[in-house]
Amino acid sequence: MFKSGYAVIVGRPNVGKSTLMNHLIGQKIAITSRRAQTTRNRIETVLTTDEGQIIFLDTPGMLRKTGNKLGEYLMDVSVGTLKDADVVLWLVEPSDYIGAGDRQIAERLISTGKPVILVVNKTDTVDKSKIAGIITAWSKVMDFSDIVCVSALRSVNLDELIREILELLPEGPKYYDEEVVTDQTMRQIASEIIREKALRALNEEVPHGIAVVIDSFKERSETLTAIEASIICERAGHKAIVIGKGGAMLKKIGTEARRDIEEMLGTKVFLQLFVKVRKNWRDSENDLKNFGYDRKKL
Ligand SMILES: Nc1nc2c(ncn2[C@@H]2O[C@H](COP(=O)(O)OP(=O)(O)OP(=O)(O)O)[C@@H](O)[C@H]2O)c(=O)[nH]1
Ligand SMILES: [Mg+2]
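Above: query sequence and guanosine-5'-triphosphate SMILES. Below: predicted holo structure tokens.
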């Protein structure tokens, strides 16, 4: 019997949702960083095995307070994506402390009535003796179909998780050809790679106010792709930081992004980056749409 369906990955910001998805499919599609609110859109990836096909949906971290229109958009993406779930993977930190943010997520999940697997992530960071207590604490929060402890980063116990997901999925067809890995276009992934390098290189409040737009993406030949992209920031002061002394910061972001994009495309890449200021774009419905965060597409 072939199984198939959607496994939606949810949880608070920064718990490792995107890292988990990348390691489950064995390829880096979603960007990751140690900053909260790295993921901004729903990202679909596909895992096909002999037993079934799991379509993973990575989502932005669920927030308690959204703060601005971008924050509202992120919540809409996460909550909206839940509707498509056949199974929900709720990722949490390896701790027996259950905060208000997680209680709120529990309420949401209970109200969907969908089967939920609790995934305790980052188990590489805690002593093994703590695990039993963590499981006991979480098992009181709601009725889980299963609780699986993993380390997404080190790919520990992911086979077990895949087995549990397949068990809960309904019988169904192969929705996608086996070679399909994601719904993201090269253009989208390139733009996200640039944002990832900016997130990782920049400090403090600057990264959260950044968006990346691909202005042009041209295959010049079979071995060369030319890309022009703009890094949008919220204030002139931020623009100066993104450019850095003598252009050093922008050069670092560009060099690192180019390397990853070349690897993804399998061609040389000529990458030109521009930095623009768009005041308070995170609170403008119109800017959000132009930068790839379109409510109407949800
Ligand atoms: N030690 C350890 N770190 C991890 C593990 N999984 C993820 N991380 C780290 O946790 C941080 C956040 O990872 P992401 O995958 O970006 O988290 P996310 O939940 O997708 O975050 P948002 O998209 O912002 O909601 C990164 O620095 C990861 O390297 C893990 O199993 N062990
Ligand atoms: Mg993420």
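The domain at 186-297 is CATH 3.30.300.20 (GMP Synthetase; Chain A, domain 3).
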